[in-house]
Amino acid sequence: MKILHTSDWHLGKSLGGEVLHEDQLFALQQVKEHLAREPYDLVVIAGDVFDRTTPSGDAVRMLGAWLGEVRAFAPTLPIVMIAGNHDNGPRLAWTAALLDKQQVYLRGDTQRIDEPIAVTGRDGVEAEVWALPFLLPGALGEATPSQVGAMEEGLRRIRARWDNTKAQVLVAHCFVRDGLVSDSERGLIGTATQIDAAVFEGFDYVALGHLHRPQVVAGNARYSGSLARYSFSEASHEKSMFAVEVAPGQPHRCVVHPLACLRGMHRITASLQELLSDPQFDDRVEAYVELTLSPPVDVGNPLEQLRARWKRILSFHNALVPAGAALATVSAGGDGTRDLEADFSDFDRQFPTGDVPPEELLRWFRDLHGRLPEEANE
């Protein structure tokens, strides 16, 4: 049986204020074209389908369009999709009862984790596919609530029902201990969130999602990695999808298929003048970049100057911020009091460093500011 394993699409993702819609369409087109060329018995999307629990309209339409396009040339190809920690499980899977009949299996909560999805390959191999979405502590009523405990309980329920004469395939979204991480994964705090790969013993293949770097974490378990580059720590990553062949009781075989990225991603340190005019950077001005000034600049607004050449500055560092420049950004009301929200917004615009939308960042600032003791606000 041949399986296409992909994960961590993060549809609707933005980075440094740049919406990655075109990049994701570019990657999804490659997945679709590959499926049109190569015969598969199953497609697996191992969580974090969307980047937010409330996905944008564009993100939802992107998923719907891709499924429709694949169905046009592969009307009976089974597709299994689970919720990751970025997804809202019930929202992702609200059409599950309907789409099951179309062999698109959406699994967003724990109610059906011990119901196998039966798949028969063109070679006659039969498989039971177990879809295990991201589990919060206590999700399965384990005695001591933790993600480790929830995973162990989920796997106990699955093993109680599996048929060892068939290939056993697990689709899961979790952080396996010692896995290689990237900056773009949402942090899971503490060792109680880290799953020991030994718990996957007995499965013929474990298709994992959550970590964005393609990697092997056990003899039977792999992360396919994210659909595109979602942080500068992934700048050197080669993105990919896996073609995996499984059979009952046999080691799986895996072929890596690279996914090209629409644009490059670079961290560049140079002087302001070099960044403004040096031809060595001509092939990077259309890429996503993190720019660091060396030496720092203490006059004017270097970021605005750089934007004239560099189209997609996602992060900017100018280590030297002189006292005079800092004071110049202070906003004051008519009574001479400081407008801290305006100061914060001005600073954020000058020094973008993350992928959080400005309005959301401002809400966080207001929340934190509101918690300060009254004397700290004076």
Question: How does this model look, in words?
Answer:
The protein is globular and about 70 Å long. It has 378 residues and is of the alpha/beta class. The N and C termini lie far apart (67 Å). The chain folds into 2 domains: 2-259, Purple Acid Phosphatase, chain A, domain 2 (4-Layer Sandwich); 265-377, no CATH class. A 6-stranded mixed β-sheet has the order 6-5-4-1-15-16. The longest helix has 17 residues, at 21-37. It contains 10 helices and 19 strands. Strand 13 and strand 14 (221-223) form a beta hairpin.
What low-confidence regions span 5 or more consecutive residues with pLDDT below 50? 321-338, 374-378
Order of strands in the sheet with the most strands? 6-5-4-1-15-16
Largest sheet: 6 strands, mixed
The mean pLDDT is 88
Say how many strands there are: 19
Tell me roughly what share of residues is in helical segments: 25-40%
The total tally of domains equals 2
Approximate shape: globular
Cα Rg: 24 Å
**Count of alpha and pi helical runs:** 10
Name the CATH class of the largest domain. Alpha Beta
